[in-house]
């Protein structure tokens, strides 16, 4: 597009290439002073070498695809005799999904929270953050519930993470909307994980708590307009939660559920937003991204947001296929979720899924 003189709504191709390579991105952020988890500085292909590195890092470790994204191409390894099979599986998935079998090893942070910061940067060097989203409720390393603000950080940690996110964006001269993702372990220690060079699925969460239209800002930035938002002007109000509505059967291990949608009735009311592209008669194909919609609720506090989410999910009707709506209803009744006592292993530990 750049070669043809066509403006792309997003960062430059060089930035996308750099940040799309997890090994290169990790090295760039480490050089910029961001904390990164212990791990390999280059791709690995030999299980013996990787196992020796893991002995130094300390188990458990995680093997990640260098070109990975969306939780695809990751394998946790608990001990050295699992390395060969884990490496083979990770390389195979990476090759199939991304056409790039390069992988690297990192320390696996157990009992962690996944916290990400939304950033905006214009073509004149101005960069701001729009606070955080917590994405700790996941299945198979893929986000399924997101909320803001995060329950796991105070204002002191929030500022440290926000400053790190802005530094990450400035380091690569980022333009457009992007997300800097962190993994946070014990004593609120956090580590750079990746930076996504696009508008995230969960961007409505940020829009609901800040009142800022991220899509509109992206378009303005692409039109070379100066970012009018000042950091001091951006505030968080209330609490927002997003539920990813996937065409999956939760009771069968989130098995894909393709087929024709015969009825689609989204909920409404104050503080309720539904983003979707499907309609009665739409056919969910067998080769597909499972996301068919997003339900976002906003309220003055988290307790009210959970209550509003329960009502909205109950009213949300999608017939013809199985969806994750029943799963979300179970999440909102879960005592650990309600109490804010959860991490990235929540679905496996609490819901046996």
Description:
The protein is α+β, with helices and mostly antiparallel strands. It contains 11 helices and 17 strands. It has helices spanning 13-20, 22-31, 47-57, 83-98, 155-171, 203-210, 214-222, 302-315, 325-331, 335-339, 346-351; strands at 61-69, 72-77, 103-107, 113-121, 127-139, 142-148, 176-184, 190-196, 239-246, 248-249, 255-256, 259-260, 263-265, 272-276, 283-284, 291-299, 317-319. The strands form 5 sheets. It has an 8-stranded antiparallel sheet. The protein has a 3-stranded antiparallel sheet with strand order 2-1-3. Strand 10 (248-249) and strand 11 form a beta hairpin. The longest helix has 17 residues, at 155-171. It starts with 12 loop residues before the first helix and ends with a helix.
Please supply descriptive tags for the structure shown above:
353 residues; alpha+beta; three-stranded antiparallel beta sheet; 29% strand
């Amino acid at each position: 597009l750049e070669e043809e003189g066509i403006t792309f709504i997003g960062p430059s191709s060089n930035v996308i290439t750099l940040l799309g390579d997890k090994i290169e991105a990790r090295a760039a952020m480490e050089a910029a002073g961001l904390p990164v988890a212990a791990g390999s500085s280059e791709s690995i292909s030999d299980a013996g070498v990787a196992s020796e590195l893991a002995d130094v890092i300390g188990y458990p470790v995680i093997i990640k695809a260098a070109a990975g994204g969306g939780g695809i191409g990751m394998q946790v390894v608990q001990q050295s005799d699992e390395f060969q099979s884990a490496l083979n599986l990770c390389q195979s998935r990476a090759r199939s999904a991304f056409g790039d079998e390069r992988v690297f090893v990192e320390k696996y942070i157990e009992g962690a929270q996944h916290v990400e910061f939304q950033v905006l940067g214009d073509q004149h060097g101005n960069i701001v953050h729009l606070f955080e989203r917590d994405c700790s409720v996941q299945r198979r390393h893929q986000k399924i519930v997101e909320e803001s603000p995060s329950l796991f950080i105070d204002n002191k940690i929030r500022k440290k993470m926000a400053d790190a996110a802005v530094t990450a964006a400035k380091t690569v001269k980022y333009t457009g909307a992007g997300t800097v993702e962190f993994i946070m372990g014990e004593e609120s220690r956090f580590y750079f994980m990746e930076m996504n060079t696009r508008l995230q699925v969960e961007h409505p969460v940020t829009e609901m708590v800040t009142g800022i239209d991220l899509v509109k800002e992206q378009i303005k930035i692409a039109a070379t307009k100066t970012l009018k938002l000042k950091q001091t002007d951006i505030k968080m109000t209330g609490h927002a939660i997003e539920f990813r509505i996937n065409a999956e059967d939760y009771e069968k291990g989130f098995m894909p559920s393709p087929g024709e949608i015969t009825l689609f009735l989204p909920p409404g009311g104050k503080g309720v937003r539904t983003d979707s592209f499907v309609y009665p008669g739409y056919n969910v194909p067998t080769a597909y991204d499972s996301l068919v919609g997003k339900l976002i609720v906003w309220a003055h506090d988290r307790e009210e947001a959970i209550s509003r989410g329960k009502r909205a999910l109950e009213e949300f009707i999608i017939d013809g296929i199985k969806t994750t709506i029943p799963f979300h209803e179970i999440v909102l009744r879960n005592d650990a979720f309600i109490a804010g006592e959860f991490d990235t292993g929540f679905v496996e530990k609490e819901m046996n899924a």
